[in-house]
Amino acid sequence: MGYVWDQIRGAIPLITHGNPYIMHLLWVSVRVALISTSAALVVGLPIGLALGLGRFRGRRALQILANASLALPPVVVGVGLLTLLLPQGAFGSLRIEFTLKAVYIAQAILALPYIVALTPAAIQALPPGLLAQARALGAGRVQLSIFALREAKIGLLAAVIAALGATISEIGAVVIVGGSFQGTDETLASALVDQFNYTGHDPVATAIAILLLAMILVLGGVLTVIQQRTGGIQLRFRAA
Amino acid sequence: MHLIWEELRVALPMIWHGNPYLFSIIWFTLQVAAVATGLATLIGLPIGLLLALGRFPGRRFLRALANASLALPPVLVGAILYLLMTVQAPLGSLRLIWTREAVFIAQTILALPFVVALSAAAIEALPDGLLAQARLLGASRRQLCTLALREARIGVIAAIIAALGTALSEVAAVTILGGNIYGYDQTLASATLFEVNGGHYADAVAIAIVLIAMILILMCGLGVLQQQGGGIRLRFRSAT
Lengths: 240, 240
Known about the structure:
The structure holds two protein chains of two kinds.
Chain A: H1 2-16, H2 20-53, H3 59-69, H4 74-85, H5 100-124, H6 128-136, H7 141-151, H8 153-169, H9 172-178, H10 188-199, H11 203-239
Helix pairs in contact in A: 1-11, 2-5, 2-8, 3-5, 4-5, 4-9, 5-8, 5-9, 8-11, 10-11
Chain B: H1 2-16, H2 20-53, H3 59-69, H4 74-85, H5 100-124, H6 128-136, H7 141-151, H8 153-169, H9 172-178, H10 188-197, H11 201-239
Helix pairs in contact in B: 1-11, 2-5, 2-8, 3-5, 4-9, 5-8, 5-9, 8-11, 10-11
């Protein structure tokens, strides 16, 4: 085990002393996670609400499609997007291939299924009579949406956290549309893969791995705390 | 738009005429999916059963851990396994790094959380009284497990399909541990990455099309199961 310890001992000072390369990766990862998840929320929340509350033909089929899109392989999204963004492609004139902007777009597309699929799931898990009652009492479409979101807020938060987790740890699309240029559009996760591909294993890779694990643990911790509170809320419903 | 057509014009014949390189990748991907999902099911199903049916201290904690492990970033699993398998490391003498065996091991470990956490969830979602009744009627441990698996079979199969999905589309751990060696241990997903890095976009598109086709087949299977699941839940409801 001596080797593993050496690696970890070498990695800790890099984090505590704030190695600029690693801190930059952390900053890029945080930005990608926040910007892509926000974009996915803006686009996905209305769709999720429509799927959760709407009563129209084909709603079930669309919901199955939304669930299936959770399984979209990131490399396929990456290749599809790159085909559009390359200079000869449909959006080539934007000139954003192999930049951080392309990474934001790719990760937003990958975060979208989480919001679109998990929002209706959270709304449908509400006590059966709740929304019907609100409808019967004459709630308008906007009121109903706000009400559903407020009641399903914990499921919604879980969806947001799942989206954040995916944008932090996913690499397939990031590497393809970003090109993985050191120090510009690398995230912690994609830099970790590059460390192994090009420079061999050294303390920098271990330090990146530790930071990545820390981010995921923080997200997981938040989710657990929220789920504990969910139990409390369900109890209140039952008691009522 | 004409870039897409150009890529498709090169990519589609590769698939039609059975390009040997493409077929070797498909074959290896199928092997990885079968071996990883098979092993993960063999190891994970007993653990899932134990977590769902067992009554021992620490069960809740282990259950939370199983759920959390679903969020483990594949890059991280790859990095940790590399740290254990590289030449100077504890398992270095086995010479696993950059071999097909390393890919099998990595994908098995990544598929395991899906089997464990989702099969446990499927068993826990069974109607409340069912297993208690079986216990009361004197079912042995083996009989109880068989009953739980039979009743929760749709959820268990969904868990296995989810495991197959990751085994097919995951790229980070495969790249780190397998080294993404041309024609040797590339899966469809890692080969897509490889071809994009080399600038062979048409080849990447061809491989991505095959990958998405496989995922679509899996999702159709899951959709059919969910329809059946609805039917079974209805039966339960009308029986109570």
